[in-house]
Write a structure and sequence with these properties.
Low-confidence stretches: none
Largest sheet: none
Order of helices and strands: HHHHH
Distance between the termini: 37 Å
Number of strands: 0
Structural class: mainly alpha
Length: 136
């Protein structure tokens, strides 16, 4: 058995073939496109993509095979989860600024905000859309 598909991050070898992931992959691309184009807010995107994450995880199980959209696996693991945690932190601080009650916590939060997480995430979204041929 060949494992060449492990080098095919964006599934070029899969072509237009329908797989068990096709529907969830289409949902992911649609949400990413709406996010990148500014047609959906952070909360709606986060909620929608959490649904994609859960559906994808259910389909994935314990097996990565030639049908697995590796781009989505890596996007969720390396980009979305980090962005989502940052999004949750921002929402928490916005709803209750007292969580930054001491100077150390304020410095840490400011340092996290300077990490460019939103920008990196948007760059990853645009890269996925470009590589998948799904730019608007």
């Amino acid at each position: 058995m060949s494992y060449d598909y492990l080098d095919d991050l964006f599934g070029k070898a899969r072509g237009q073939r329908t797989t068990r992931f096709s529907d969830v992959e289409a949902k992911a691309v649609g949400l990413i496109r709406r996010w990148a184009e500014g047609n959906i807010d952070e909360d709606a995107f986060a909620e929608g993509f959490r649904g994609v994450q859960q559906e994808f995880s259910g389909l994935l199980g314990d097996t990565i095979d030639e049908d697995t959209p590796l781009w989505l696996l890596q996007f969720i693991s390396n980009r979305f989860i980090r962005w989502h945690q940052f999004h949750q932190l921002k929402r928490r601080v916005e709803s209750d600024p007292s969580v930054l009650s001491d100077e150390g916590m304020r410095r840490n939060y400011a340092a996290i905000c300077r990490m460019g997480i939103d920008e990196e995430f948007m760059d990853a979204c645009r890269l996925c859309l470009r590589e998948l041929g799904a730019e608007g």
